[in-house]
Amino acid sequence: MPNPERYTVTSALPYANGPIHIGHIAGAYLPADIYVRYLRSQGRDVVYICGSDEHGAAITLRAKKEGIGPKEIVDKYHELNKNTFKQFGISFNIYHRTSSQIHHETASGFFSKLYDLGQFTRKTNEQYFDETEQQFLADRYISGTCPKCNYDSAYGDQCEKCGSSLSPNELINPKSTLSGETPVQKKTTHWYLPLNKFEPWLREWIIEGHKEDWKPNVYGQCKSWIDSGLLPRAMTRDLDWGVKVPLENAEGKVLYVWLDAPIGYISATKQWAADNGKNWEDYWKSESTNLIHFIGKDNIVFHCIIFPILLKAHGGYVLPTNVPANEFLNLEGEKISTSRNHAIWLHEYLKEFPDKKDEMRYVLCSIAPETKDSEFKWKDFQARVNNELVAIFGNFVNRSLVLTHKYFEGKVPEQGELTDKEKQVFDEIETLVANIGSSIEAHRYREALATAMNIARIGNGYLAETEPWKLIKQDEERVKTILNTSLQICATLSIVLEPFLPHVCGKLNEMLNHPKCEWGKADDQQILQTGNQMRKPELLFQKIEDTVIEAQVAKLKSISIVAEDSVNSNSRKKPFVRFEEFSKFDIRTGVIIEAEPIPKADKVLKLKVDLGTEQRTIVAGVAGYYSPDEILGQKVCVLVNLEPRKIRGIESQGMILMAENSDQSKLTFISPQQEIENGAIIR
Ligand SMILES: [Zn+2]
Q1: End of a domain among 470, 487, 521?
Q2: How far is the CA of 638 from the centre of ligand 1 (A)?
Q3: Separation of 628 CA from ligand 1 center, angstroms?
Q4: Distance 141 CA to ligand 1 centre (A)
Q5: What's the confidence (pLDDT) of residue 561?
Q6: End-to-end Cα distance, the chain
Q7: How many angstroms does the Cα of residue 143 sit away from the middle of ligand 1?
């Protein structure tokens, strides 16, 4: 709707099991904050909703690992994230929690309504169950070997190494991450929402209806989901942490976190409305409300397909008007990884750079992954701050104010007769201000920010051309007009850059000694009154030195290495075994007597190993490290009673033992230290 009466804007509810990093900010929070600040400055009715997502298996898993209750985990990260967002200037109207009473009531009521309407089908099937812990295992609680890449710590829903999405049944050698035991299959009952039933409606609503106005990356993902066919999805889970299923015979079951979490937007709005004397239904049920969800691309299906289906199935709610999801932000050449600690954590950044909030906002908006993945580099951060914020915006404001203090005691001088030059400058600014607005409304924030910075460039060009510092001796009246014009441009900048750089624009307004203005004033030629006494100018931005950047790059490298080591060694630590179990392994010495490559298999070699009494064919994954010639005559240790298995069409009759370092850069044979006959027993 082009001119709605009000806006309900949401940012993805962060999971309360860890802190926020810059990738989250660039994806779902900064663009939303820019949008709502712009809308508010237009005087529009907007509520900006967010909060902690406090349910789901990832939280109970984290709690078990740390040996504390889930409540302690969510309390800790709710507070941390709430404060971090606030300090960074993300201007939520409410930052709520899904563990709150009002949320439990809302989510539970929503489920009951769907149940009463007959929207669910009840199904019993077999799922993995941990007999030691006596509980069903959510996908995240199961780990095993990835069938696609052989990574040995893949999860039941995803392999973090190769990125494949998996189902628990696909994992080779599945283990419960709670007890380390092999889980068994056990029957359980759940309530499913037949997403497939809504397919014709989704085609009409998204594929026909939002072809033009949704971002191509969002539209494309929705279309491919719908085209590949939707399946019924369980809306309940076997877990003891979450919103209880409000039905009889449903003990030990909670609502699926992707049913629960988006309803969090509704319950947060209820809380905000109650606190502020508003009617929450206006913001969710009125046809004149625009509902906009800001998220990262990993949440597109939940916000564009599953949540709208829930709203539609329930009835009475508006549907999302737009879901301007962003792609991913990478960091220094790699994907951001929370498990490897390859990330810039926002709360740490704020501690280290307490006066550089807007510098990070500026850079994250400039490189926002709006249409494809993008990358944050500390070197680029430094360049953008120094060459753009300091050299263009900061420099223009500083020159305008310093000259005014020098010539006119800091009072806004009179605007005399405008020459063609000023008329041209004001015309250009008028066009740019309009363009910034339309870019923001189209969710093109990078473009909007670049356009706003062009106003500062125009200001710099204008000063360079008119040279008031040279004119002051001959023509003071003309200098008055020039500086008045420059100061009006500063005031325009304080309005159009406020959504992007709220802290700095606040400081600029203080220096101009002028209150914050609404958007409609931005192209006004007389924002500041003649004679207005301004405060002493301070620099809006400071240059960032090389040493500061080098320290950050070094920090990132060192924490990534430490984290990687600990992840690797952790994943290799195995539970105790009894001696009888170990003695089942028949390990013997041998020597490689033949080695040849296998066509189309670049990782493995086909080896013949002499074990004294016999020779065995063994396929070994050493081709990435050794050439066939290099290993002829190599003494080795062989697990000879490993069940034979076909690898690349060849039966491998045993396994050669190898040692590998933690970053997998080195793989080496294990061989006896002294001469010993082939076939000697290792024990
Ligand atoms: Zn994999």
Answers
A1: 521
A2: 27
A3: 28
A4: 17
A5: 56
A6: 76
A7: 12
CA–centroid distance, residue 150 to ligand 1 (Å): 6
Token output for 185: 């299959």
Residue 142 lies in a domain: no
Nearest CA to 497 out of 392, 620, 617 is that of 392
Could you tell me if residue 607 is inside a domain? yes
- Mean per-residue pLDDT, 632-643: 90
pLDDT in tens, 347-369: 999 999 999 999 999 999 999 99
DSSP track, 296-312:
BGGGHHIIIIIHHHHHH
Question: How far does the centroid of ligand 1 lie from the alpha carbon of residue 181, in Å?
Answer: 21
Q: Any idea what the CATH number is for the domain that residue 454 is in?
A: 1.10.730.10
Q: Is the pTM of this model over 0.85?
A: no
* Residues recorded for the chain: 683
- Tens of pLDDT, residue by residue over 577-627, are 777 778 888 999 999 989 998 887 778 899 999 998 889 999 988 887 888
State how far the Cα of 286 lies from the Cα of 293, in Å rounded to an integer. Answer: 17
Q: Please, which residues have CB less than 5 A from ligand 1, an ion? A: 146, 148-149, 151, 159, 161-162
CA of 128 to the centre of ligand 1 (A): 20
What does the pLDDT look like over 237-258, one tens digit per residue? 998 899 999 999 898 899 998 8
Q: How far is the CA of 619 from the centre of ligand 1 (A)?
A: 21
pLDDT, tens digit, 9 for 90 and up, residues 389-416:
999 999 999 999 999 999 999 999 999 9
Q: How many domains does the chain have?
A: 3
Q: How far is CA 505 from CA 289, 425, 511, 591, in A?
A: 30, 22, 10, 74
Q: 357-366 and 445-466 helices cross at what angle (nearest 10)? A: 110
Distance (Å) from CA 163 to ligand 1 centroid: 6
Q: In this structure, are 273 and 351 located in the same domain?
A: no
Q: Are the beta carbons of 37 and 302 closer than 8 angstroms?
A: no
CA of 155 to the centre of ligand 1 (A): 9
Q: Which two tokens stand for residue 121?
A: 């089908």
Residues 381 and 509 grouped into a single domain: yes
* Residues 506, 362 share a domain: yes
Q: Are residues 388 and 504 in the same domain?
A: yes
Q: Which residue range is the domain that position 606 belongs to?
A: 581-669
Using DSSP bridges, classify how beta strands 94-97 and 289-294 pair: parallel, antiparallel or unpaired. unpaired
**CATH classification of the domain holding 66:** 3.40.50.620
**Alpha carbon of 166 to ligand 1 centroid (Å):** 9
Å from CA of 159 to ligand 1 middle: 5
CA of 621 to the centre of ligand 1 (A): 17
Say whether pLDDT at 424 is over 50.
Answer: yes
Per-residue confidence (pLDDT) for residue 547, from 0 to 100 = 96
How many A from CA of 156 to the centre of ligand 1? 11
Ligand 1 centroid to Cα of residue 572, in Å, is: 17
Confidence bin at 571 (pLDDT 50/70/90): very low
Establish if 603 belongs to a structural domain.
Answer: yes
